[in-house]
Amino acid sequence: MDWSDTPEQAAFRGEVREFIRNRLPGPYRGTLEEAANDAEELTAGWQADRKSDDGERRDMAIRWASALAEKGWIAPHWPKEYGGAGLSVVEQFIYNQEMSSAGAPAVGGMGVSLLGPTLIVHGTDEQKAEHLPKILSGEVAWAQGYSEPGAGSDLASLQTRAVRDGDDYVINGQKIWTSGAQYADWLFALVRTEPEAPKHRGISFVMMDIKTPGITVRPLTDMGWNQPFNETFFEDVRVPVRNRIGEENRGWYVGMTLLDFERSGISGAVQYARDLGRFVEFVHSDKGKRFARQDMAITRLEVADRRIETEVLFNFAFRIVSMQNRGMVPNYEASVNKLFGSELHQKLARTGMKGFGLYGNLWERKGEHVPMAAHFTRDYVSSVPHTIFSGTSEIQRNVIATRGLGLPRG
């Protein structure tokens, strides 16, 4: 296996790096320490920034989206005929690697990564014409309505009902963990249209304007005092039947296509290696030496383990890219990547906190006694759900066991 770039790939990597140097707005490229000094909170990401009360932050998000749109890089993996850049699988890998290395935020969120590819596969020409351009321009952001209070890992048990009434569905029910819904303009959701059918059938995939009467979005505060997700309520919400993607009662298969995209991310290893590199650089600096534990021997060994693990994760991701490049569809391989990556995220956060001893308990980003703007402290808390969302570690292990190892279902 050859990990090196071809001359063409090296030229493309250089093009991406030059673009980032010239077009990425300053606040997105700042260090953790700089961001903590400039503001009480770091930027919350593009989807939140575009609706921020801070005019400068909104302008920054718009400028970055416009810069990417000029290159077709809001959706680099989409075919050119749909407004994407039509990059090859390997070029996408290089693009994501360089963007993640620079800390450059993705634009378009779930609209680009999840809904758009699903529309391209399953949507009508009218649906594509209506929604894809608005995703590519950054005009419309999307949220995902999948999980429910009684249907998380067992998603097919969902109970949100959609009853056909002429040209509309009338929807009632509740979704939970709806990430970014407070910043979204539209929502895509799985709803039950045939309650008597087996649970994996009788489900339809629908899109709806989040301002539709009857939809209520309530942010949920997590253990880190952030609000990354919401609970969403539907009370007699009328959604046109034309907003259904795919056949009625066949939405489960549409939704699973979407999850194939969600579970094949390749930027985690780069981000974790970046965080680890920052940690090592900091503890060796004059400022960092006073924060580092006196007994760093054990932490040093953990750092070595984490560095090896980031390389393993990179190669898991590279394996997926190699498969896609040969026209294959990753299945259990994506589950291996997700399982290993989410657990590595938690281990890395614990290692970072351990390296700072009692200083690792400090939560505020500013202060003379706060190492690295409390990055690992906050990451330790925020990483807790990473082994739960997008398919729990238990679900991923089941996929690996049955589809990868051929073990019988218990």
Uncertain segments of ≥5 residues (pLDDT<50)?
Answer: none
Order of helices and strands: HHHHHHHHEEEEEEEEHHHHHHH
Helix content: 40-55%
Task: State the secondary-structure class.
Answer: alpha+beta
* Terminal CA distance: 37 Å
Number of strands: 8
CATH top level label of the largest domain: Mainly Alpha
Q: How many structural domains can be distinguished in the coordinates?
A: 3
CATH H level, superfamily name of the largest domain? Butyryl-CoA Dehydrogenase, subunit A, domain 3
- Main sheet? 4 strands, mixed
Strand content: 5-15%
Notes on the structure:
This protein is of the alpha+beta class and 410 residues long. It has three domains: 7-107, Butyryl-Coa Dehydrogenase, subunit A, domain 1 (Orthogonal Bundle), CATH 1.10.540; 142-252, Butyryl-CoA Dehydrogenase, subunit A, domain 2, CATH 2.40.110.10; 263-404, Up-down Bundle (Butyryl-CoA Dehydrogenase, subunit A, domain 3), CATH 1.20.140.10. The protein contains 15 helices and eight strands. The chain has helices at residues 7-23, 26-29, 32-38, 46-49, 55-71, 89-102, 109-122, 125-136, 251-262, 268-284, 286-289, 297-325, 332-355, 375-382, 393-404, and strands at 142-145, 161-165, 168-176, 186-192, 203-209, 215-220, 229-240, 244-245. The longest helix has 29 residues, at 297-325. The model has no long low-confidence stretch (mean pLDDT 89).
